[in-house]
Write a structure and sequence with these properties.
The structure is a homodimer.
Chain A (H helix, E strand, L loop, with lengths): L12 H19 L6 H13 L5 H12 L4 H26 L3 E2 L2 E2 L1 H5 L1 H20 L1 H36 L7 H28 L7 H24 L2 H4 L5 H5 L4 H9 L2 H12 L7 H14 L1 H29 L2 H15 L3
Helix pairs in contact in A: 1-3, 1-4, 2-6, 3-4, 3-8, 3-16, 4-6, 4-7, 4-8, 6-7, 7-8, 8-9, 9-15, 9-16, 12-15, 13-14, 15-16
Chain lengths: ~350, ~350
């Protein structure tokens, strides 16, 4: 296999993720500083990148670039920046959500306190930006500028979605619909998980000539399927496999599709239980209580509803795939990989 | 007065800060988004920028640019980015330090909770980056790239200094010297408060031709004088004028020059009191106890020591000023303003 431009035609989606993930992992390690202060900064900065993730985001970027005729070398700085920024977001999100586990181990703020962890996230943000600036050598000023603009727009979208999700919890908003959820997820998850990596990969691969709108549509469907599956795993998954604390979302009061459904459809007594649970502070919610809410969701059909909803979104992703990539790019090995990711999103257990 | 290029020859330092501050304030307001989500994001993002600061950082950038022959228009995006990034740092630092007051009002995390405040800081970081990218139109690709690189290096230096200061507190490090303090302050404060703004202004004004090393030296002395005075105001200032809680640094256990001095010079009984105070968690330190430590500092001559140290650093700043700017730039109205800032740093009460 040619490592610089791996042939994905016969690989499964999982193998391609491993191949692309290894390339980005190496580039990420090269970009991380190895000097002082280590114990209070750069050891923390390196901690999450060293816990291998699924590499979905950088793989989307590399594959989109190649599907449109570009090379790994052209997209690697952008893919690396995306993965570094993802890790920066994880550090800050874990603080904001008061999460305990990340990729099967203690979250950074649990291990080092929130102050040093928050600061390490800021450093990682700057290091990600350095990778974005490295594009000037590879892509020239015009295209590098577009990618840099895409990057800050992506960060801003992610903070908008995160603010909405945190605001719903803090102000205990109860009258939400699946449309509200999708709107929040578009900004919180899709923009930085799927839309941005695909847009940037396609921009680079096509040298700025591709139409972005259909790619945004495909990316949105793919990202929403990813997020709904993530929410389902948090509710019903296997903790060892999933790597985060099961029922963490319910303890935080996160407005998932399942929570929105149970609030809309449960009988009045059950709904009153859910409302009372959400009305209490996080610190006074217990795991047995969260399990009771999950049982109410099972009884109300909320989990089946979310699974069906995700399948519907995945169907939309299938339908929008070829329009987004065009017959030629769709037929490449990387196009096949991108199409294969739709089902991977729904079938994954971690 | 020509607003686009104000004449600073007869203005006092304070008036020039007001003039430049107003220009940057307007540019900052224009860069802040005015759309949803407001209550959970953009109202928070706008909160600190709306509380007028001293505008030292952007004024340094604008004045350095003009002293070397550049215009306000060329340096304004960079000056705006610096001030926005400063506000982003303030939000995150206030969370990390658990501070209660900022510019005379409640800190953002005290008013809105740490999660939404942290996220608002991330958004402000992205908005600052947008201003950096706007340089491409004003400066062309070569110079814009240098400024963008300077910007991320500055952010990284600031996180290194912040990590060191937080690490000293968390691990209760007691055997520090004034040299350790200066090394930490160079990264935590000087790089982003003085060195970066001056370097970037000079780079733009001279179109990349100026020698940066002597400017770094001047910036370091100016920034260190600024930080020592800030530490002194926190210990002995007037809260209404200063805008932060007096004795906050002592309650946090910050390793200031005064604390380092009292640990080095106090008699063994007094030193034991200071060590016992620092050995307790922040939450179990009371204001009367912090006042006792301040009294010990007064008795040990630690405050006089820090004042003298700051005067010595200011003397060095004077000595390095003309070498940094050269006779021609030093003689301009903006050169006069920059020289005048040395004494302003020591005399300020807010």
């Amino acid at each position: 296999m040619n490592v610089a431009n791996p042939d994905t035609s016969r690989s499964s989606v999982g193998e391609t993720l491993l191949t692309y993930g290894a390339l980005v992992q190496r580039a990420m390690q090269e970009s991380l500083p190895q000097h002082e202060p280590r114990a209070w900064l750069y050891d923390l900065v390196s901690a999450y990148p060293a816990r291998a993730g699924k590499a979905i985001r950088p793989s989307l970027c590399l594959a989109s670039c190649r599907a449109f005729g570009g090379s790994i070398a052209e997209a690697l700085p952008s893919a690396t920046a995306i993965e570094l920024m993802h890790n920066a977001f994880l550090i800050h999100d874990d603080i904001e959500d008061e999460s305990e586990l990340r990729r099967g181990r203690a979250t950074l703020h649990s291990a080092h306190g929130p102050a040093l962890a928050l600061n390490a996230g800021d450093a990682l943000f700057a290091i990600a930006q350095r990778c974005v600036h490295a594009n000037l050598d590879v892509l020239g000023p015009r295209l590098a500028r577009r990618v840099a603009h895409e990057f800050v727009v992506m960060v801003q979208h992610a903070t908008e979605g995160q603010a909405t999700e945190l605001g719903w919890i803090r102000d205990n908003i109860l009258d939400l619909t699946p449309d509200d959820y999708l709107d929040m997820v578009m900004r919180k998850t899709c923009w930085y998980t799927t839309v941005h990596p695909i847009r940037v990969g396609a921009l680079i691969g096509s040298w700025g000539s591709v139409s972005l709108e259909p790619l945004v549509r495909f990316g949105f469907h793919l990202g929403a399927a990813f997020q709904i599956q993530d929410d389902l795993l948090n509710l019903c998954g296997d903790e060892e496999c999933y790597g985060k604390e099961i029922l963490g979302d319910l303890l935080e009061g996160k407005r998932t599709l399942m929570l929105i459904h149970v609030l809309q459809t449960a009988g009045s007594a059950d709904r009153a239980d859910v409302v009372a649970y959400l009305g209490r502070a996080r610190s006074s919610r217990s795991l047995p209580e969260a399990q009771q809410i999950r049982d109410l969701m099972v009884a109300a059909g909320s989990i089946e509803f979310a699974r069906a909803f995700a399948r519907g979104i995945a169907y939309e992703a299938e339908a929008s795939f070829e329009r987004a990539f065009g017959a030629r790019a769709a037929a490449t090995p990387d196009g096949e990989f991108l199409r294969g990711l739709i089902h991977y999103m729904l079938d994954r257990t971690s």
